[in-house]
Amino acid sequence: LIVDAAKAEGAELGTMVAVAARRDAVEAAISGLEGVVVANHNAPLQSIVSGSRAAVNAVTERLAAAGIDATPLPVAAAFHSHLVRPAQGALAEAIQATPWRAPAVPVYSNSTGLPHAADVEETRRRMADHLVLPVEFVAEIEAMHRDGARIFVEVGPKSVLSRLTAKILEGRPHAAIALDDGTGLPGFLAGLARLACAGVAIDVGRLFEGRSVLLGDPADLPTLSRRVTASRHAWLLNGSGARRVSEPVRQIGMTLEQAAARPTRELAESAAMPMV
């Protein structure tokens, strides 16, 4: 919608760059330039500059002169800047057409860094304005921590936001936990384990619903035993081979008793060998 609206008006789509520097240094680099803004303040040492290509190039040159690198981002447009304003009307219409309710829990705004109001209409207006307003992620996390939040859980893909949160709150009590670090199920389970260690009640039984598993009490060992009668036509497979259920288990390797007796037997055999 953003790209199509900008193209329809013949407007420039613009571009964005990431800057690893303090925000005041980035603000100084864009001072006096038209058509460019700090679109994201993601961490104490990470900001995103958004605007026209000419303005962003000028900022990049100023930063380079100050010894600060600016990394171009592969984006479709200069998001959170005036260049995406052509799409704001259509976005507002979509927001108005969507049923909204007052938040049941505090929901913090990316643009103000503060909780959204209980008034639904005000929240709708703020969400439409958010398209062209900067993302104040640092202010948002700071406000949440100030209001008592200590456990931050990232539900979306990978762990970018949890890493940024850790940088923002470095040295202060908190836990920033990602549930999808890119490793799949192991990362999800590790995230749940971290939540449990942080004192969050986790219903682990939900992980086993619909699965052929046995939930038992480790303090009551008989509850952990499971007897399954296999069909006489079944085969059992493992890393060492395959056998019918009716066949005895083949020994792999040797027992401790066999290992202990082996040196004595080998010594006796060597003593009986003729000398040459």
Range of strand content:
5-15%
Overall form = elongated
N→C terminal distance: 93 Å
Low-confidence stretches: none
Please provide the count of β strands: 8
Structural description of this entry:
The protein is of the alpha+beta class and 276 residues long. It contains 9 helices and 8 strands. The chain has helices spanning 2-8, 23-30, 53-65, 88-96, 120-129, 137-146, 160-168, 185-197, 256-271; strands at residues 15-19, 36-43, 46-51, 70-72, 151-154, 175-178, 235-238, 241-244. α4 packs antiparallel against α5 (120-129). The protein is elongated, with a radius of gyration of 31 Å. The mean pLDDT is 89.
List keywords for this structure.
two-stranded parallel ribbon, about 280 residues, four-stranded antiparallel beta sheet, alpha+beta, single chain, about 35% helix
Summarize the structure.
The chain has 276 residues and is of the alpha+beta class.
SSE inventory with pairings:
Blueprint: H1 2-8, E1 15-19, H2 23-30, E2 36-43, E3 46-51, H3 53-65, E4 70-72, H4 88-96, H5 120-129, H6 137-146, E5 151-154, H7 160-168, E6 175-178, H8 185-197, E7 235-238, E8 241-244, H9 256-271
Helix pairs in contact: 4-5
